Amino acid sequence: MSESVDVRMAKAVEAFGRDLGGFRTGRASASLVERVVVEHYGAATPLNQLAGISVPESTLLVIQPYDPGAIAAVEKALNNAQLGMTPAVDGGVIRLRVPSMTEERRKDLVKQMHKRAEEARIEIRNVRRDEQEAAKRAEKDKEIGSDEAHRRLDALQKLTDAKTTEIDKLLASKEREVLES
Questions:
Q1: Class of 27-97 per CATH?
Q2: Do residues 66 and 50 make contact, with C-beta atoms less than 8 angstroms apart?
Q3: How far, CA to CA in Å, does 77 sit from each of 63, 66, 89?
Q4: Which pLDDT tens digit goes with each residue over 59-80?
Q5: Is pLDDT of 1 > 70?
Q6: In whole angstroms, what is the distance from residue 34 CA to residue 44 CA?
Q7: How far apart are CA 106 and CA 175, in angstroms?
Q8: Considering the entire predicted model, what is its pTM?
Q9: Torsions phi, psi of 42, nearest 5?
Q10: Which CATH superfamily groups domain 3-20+102-180?
Q11: Residue (of 83, 73, 22, 19) closest to 47 by Cα position
Q12: Mind listing the pLDDT tens digit for each residue in 23-34?
């Protein structure tokens, strides 16, 4: 089994973890806005590269653009991102008040998280499928013996199970956070 399989599966888990950070739990977090793309000087730039993002209170985000001329562009990007929060420009900073979540919204978020978890599991299974095909092809072409092919397939399944379990743990943790906050 090639090392790239482990790396590709780990990247799928890592991407899922980053995606979970974008789910709002009723508490302010810089991850809610850091990936918002701002059109500034003709270039699409992630917000975290244009501004400092701080969390002075559990329900407040403060965004301070490094370039004061970018405030209008940042405000527009935040409005277009449909975060469910209205940016308030206050001098050289933008404040975002994170509203408390309704029970219906929490359940909707959990559904979205489950959908994204399944997408991550599918990514992992696709990597497994590609490697299974490579092992079977190598066995068919007599590059490896059947015992080696079975060892590779067993190791591949164990790795797949481990990465799927990681996704399930991340999902369970974030789900608890969303439902309890």
A1: alpha beta
A2: yes
A3: 12, 16, 13
A4: 888 889 888 888 888 888 888 8
A5: no
A6: 13
A7: 9
A8: 0.64
A9: 80, 5
A10: Ribosome-recycling factor (1.10.132.20)
A11: 73
A12: 766 677 777 777
